[in-house]
Sequence to fold (142 residues):
Amino acid sequence: MLYLLMLMVMCLYVSIVDFLHRKIQNNALLLLLLLQSFLSPLDLQITTFLLVLGIGLILYALIWIGAGDIKYAAVLSLTIPLNDLPWAYIMTAFAGGFLAVIYLITRKIISNKVNIQEGIPYGIAISVGFYLIILTQNTPHI
Fold:
């Protein structure tokens, strides 16, 4: 339970920083890596980690996603079994779609009033999608 609480706090921190600055800090990712490696009750999934990192690097080369988002998803995937990885991506896509709709509505409403930053802070969607999968693994009765 302590692991889930600490993971939630870290995901909230990364999401807030990504929202405010459009950047995912490496020191936060290092703390998250330590949390995943030493406090998680789940087995580490190196294959999943490498797959997420590899796919992420391809998406980064195509300029579809930022490097911080890739590293963040890779670190979170350390405790997600390979067969649950598609669900993490599906949940992330739903959260990202919802976030995109909110951003479009917000941009339409306040576009003339305030200078808003470009791009969607996808760290928020990654936090939601991957955390929900990790949560359901740690609490199988959900």
